[in-house]
Design goal:
With about 550 residues, the chain is an alpha/beta fold. It contains 15 helices and 27 strands. The strands form five sheets. The chain has an eight-stranded mixed β-sheet with strand order 7-6-5-3-2-1-21-22. The chain has a seven-stranded mixed β-sheet with strand order 8-9-10-11-12-19-20. The structure holds zinc ion (2 copies).
Length: about 550
């Protein structure tokens, strides 16, 4: 049987990474991540891959391998486990972060979590699996070498090549070079995120040094906002604070929890036993001795940082003399929210530093020169870019082509790649979809719901309530017209009156039979009002007629 490789997510977008390897006797999944919604997905919490295609391989699915603990790699595990009972293999920190998510879903008891070392070699079904360290913005990351009857496959996971890795463990380039000289690598699947960045990514240690400088120079408190999963950087903050006689207050549930997990697993060390400070004291101690470490670097409207800037946070209020540092990327789509929190921070009297004006953030993903090193050392026959929007995948493929890789190929979600006798063939496309997760609902938000939400947000809603007698069709109540977000300017009263007139006219013009059929009259009212609002206001609000039979 050939080996079939099918990306279920992440090839064509940033997020929801998941890839299936299936040799007909055993199957493996690498990662099961989520994607955060873009601004067209109103009210959606996140998006996950549709794992439905796994039903066909369920009886031979031997395990899920996790590369690292970021949400775009582990965020959909709980949804996967609800349907498929597979063991989950990951390094201790990755599993530690996953456990938090599973606890929230009440799944922690049932899940089979199998810790692995960063260089561990083990078997699952017909696959010989070898982990290798991958340096990234979160500790304990790995890539995988998979060996099976159809060849040797390397999946990098998310990586950069940091010459000064914070935990002292570099990306295993030497191991991969040796692999390439001892065994031929059939295919390399490599992280495409930063293929558009020339040169090399900056080492994480730079950020620690930049923060240390800021802590030394700032006269008052320093508030540092970042993602709570960036354990290396949190360590950098703790060490820099200790150097300048500051103590650190942690703010945000995920921040407190992730620090506790990292300390427990030895992925983080306190530079001084008393370095952590209760949040309440951050408001009363002299500013020069305090750092507040918080989430909310993306300007999320109810996040701690935003509340602090607005003076609405329970413990911390931003004041004159504070310095705020946004130590993370401006994620596309969040720029407006970030600009807004920066403005509020200034209004509250703070100085603000961010990646555009200061070296307070570096990426966890390899730039072009590092990607070239990876391709050069692994020397694969086939090259398949992963992790990114289509344009990143195509550019990364072109890069591999320039480097003389014999078969660089772009694959997208659902594409079936069949490896047999060292050759790859394309074997069609599986219908892989995505599910929108909204509160407790999974997949029950369809695209038409999103369209409605978009329309509601843009042009508002008009609701018509009308009660008719089921025997005569006469009007017993209404028509009452309610609007939301439609009629704001002067004359809205008049518009409502006119709309009411149109509803009455529609009713009058409909025959006796139609008056007794609420669906028919609802359709007529919707059409008439749509015409009216389009003509009168040049708008297309969502029109919701409710016709009751009494
Ligand atoms: Zn990552
Ligand atoms: Zn990622």
């Amino acid at each position: 049987m050939p080996l079939r490789v099918v990306p279920l997510g992440g090839l064509g977008e940033i997020g929801m990474n998941s890839m299936l390897f299936d040799d007909g006797e055993s199957a493996l999944l690498i990662d099961a991540g989520l994607m955060f919604p873009d601004d067209t997905m109103l009210g959606i919490d996140y998006v996950i891959p549709d794992f439905g295609v796994l039903r066909e391989v369920a009886n031979r699915l031997k395990g899920l391998l996790l590369t690292h603990g970021h949400e775009d790699h582990i965020g959909a595990v709980s949804f996967l486990l609800k349907e498929f009972d597979v063991p989950v293999h990951g390094t201790p920190l990755t599993l530690g972060l996953l456990r938090h998510r599973l606890e929230e879903q009440g799944l922690d008891g049932a899940a089979r979590l199998v810790p692995i070392g960063r260089t561990e070699r083990f078997r699952l079904g017909g696959f010989d699996i070898e982990a290798f360290p991958a340096c990234h913005s979160i500790p304990d990351g790995v890539g995988f070498i998979l060996r099976c009857g159809e060849g040797v496959f390397v999946h990098t996971g998310d990586f950069k090549i940091d010459p000064r890795p914070p935990d002292g463990v570099p990306t295993a380039i030497a191991r991969l070079s040796r692999l390439a000289s001892e065994e031929k690598v059939t295919a390399l699947f490599s992280d495409s995120t930063n293929v558009e960045r020339e040169g090399y990514s900056l080492p994480e240690a730079f950020v620690g040094e930049a923060l240390s400088e800021i802590f030394g120079e700032a006269k008052g408190r320093v508030l540092v906002a970042m993602f709570s999963s960036n354990i290396h950087r949190i360590q950098g903050v703790l060490s820099a604070a200790a150097r300048h006689g500051r103590r650190v207050a942690l703010c945000g549930r995920s921040m407190v929890r992730n620090v506790a997990t990292a300390l427990e697993l030895g992925c983080m060390k306190l530079p001084r036993p008393d370095i952590l400070l209760p949040l309440e004291e951050a408001e009363t101690l002299p500013g020069r001795s305090v750092v507040v470490l918080t989430t909310g670097s993306q300007g999320e409207p109810r996040s701690a940082l935003t509340l602090m800037a607005l003076g609405e946070h329970k413990h911390i209020r931003v004041r004159e003399g504070d310095t705020a540092v946004l130590s993370s990327k401006f994620i596309p789509g969040n720029e407006r929210a970030i600009a807004s929190v920066i403005n509020h921070l200034f209004l509250a009297g703070a100085e603000v530093l961010h990646e555009k004006i200061s070296e307070v953030h570096v990426s966890g993903h390899a730039s072009r020169e590092e990607l070239k090193i990876m391709i050069d050392r692994v020397r694969p026959k086939y090259f398949i870019p992963v992790h990114g929007d289509p344009r990143f995948l195509f550019r990364h493929r072109n890069l591999a082509r320039e480097m003389g890789v014999p078969h660089p190929e772009v694959a997208l979600n659902g594409d079936v790649l069949e490896f047999s006798g060292g050759e790859m063939a394309r074997a069609g496309k599986l219908a892989v979809g995505r599910f929108f997760v909204d509160g407790r609902g999974v997949g029950d938000v369809e695209s038409f719901v999103l369209k409605d939400r978009y329309q509601l947000s843009q042009v508002g809603m008009v609701m018509v309530v009308l009660a008719l007698s089921s025997t005569t069709g006469e009007i017993l109540y209404g028509p009452e017209i309610l609007t939301r977000g439609v009629l704001t300017e002067n004359g809205s009263e008049a518009s409502v009156e006119e709309a009411r007139g149109i509803v009455l006219k529609t009713w009058e013009e409909s025959g006796v039979e139609a008056r007794k059929d609420p669906t028919e009259i609802q359709t007529d009212i919707r059409k008439a009002l749509r015409r009216y609002f389009n003509k009168r206001l040049e708008r297309k609000p969502v029109i919701l007629p409710v016709v009751l039979e009494l």
